[in-house]
Amino acid sequence: MEIRELVHDSEEYRRVVSLRSAILRQPLGLAYSAADLASERDQLHLAGFIGDAPVATIILQPLPEGVGKLRQMAVSAADQRKGLGTRLLLAVEQLARSHGLKLLILHARESALPFYLKAGYTAVGERFTEVGLPHWRMEKTLTDA
Fold it and tell me: Where are the domains of the chain?
């Protein structure tokens, strides 16, 4: 898998949005609006490709005070449990460090909780509902690597 940063609203970005939609939104009967996608303009987009096909994606949203929020992580159904998500997560953590971020936060679907715990993230607070599914707020302090 080749991991690369995407330009918002590029052809590659639009193909990755299709992947995100298939994995994260369509199963819940949801879709991205134009406003949803426009709001991602100032965020950093990473995706993993096998050949020309996007197979994994994640968004890094830099926030004030050295915090970054990870959003919209998805791996194609056929490529899950092959270590691609872990590789992408390590890459986005390195990207966050390069932008001077010290703390990453995210909202993890409860089904993804073991994945993030294994990667060194800590659940913070109580379980909550987002997009109709149980989620956990998670965080990880980045160290220099």
Answer: 2-141
The band of 65, judged by pLDDT with boundaries at 50, 70 and 90, is very high
Can you read off the two tokens belonging to residue 73?
């992580």
Q: What is the pTM of this model?
A: 0.93
Give the fold, CATH level 3, of 2-141: Aminopeptidase (3.40.630)
CA distance 121 to 107: 11
Phi, psi angle pair for 131, to nearest 5°: 45, 35
Quick: pLDDT tens for 78-91: 888 899 999 999 99
Give dist(CA 18, CA 23) in Å, integer: 9
DSSP state letters, 7-31: -TTSHHHHHHHHHHIIIIIGGGT--
Residue 53 contacts residue 12 (beta carbons within 8 Å): no
Give yes or no for a contact between 3 and 87, defined as CB atoms under 8 angstroms apart.
Answer: yes
d(Cα 127, Cα 114) in Å, to the nearest integer? Answer: 14
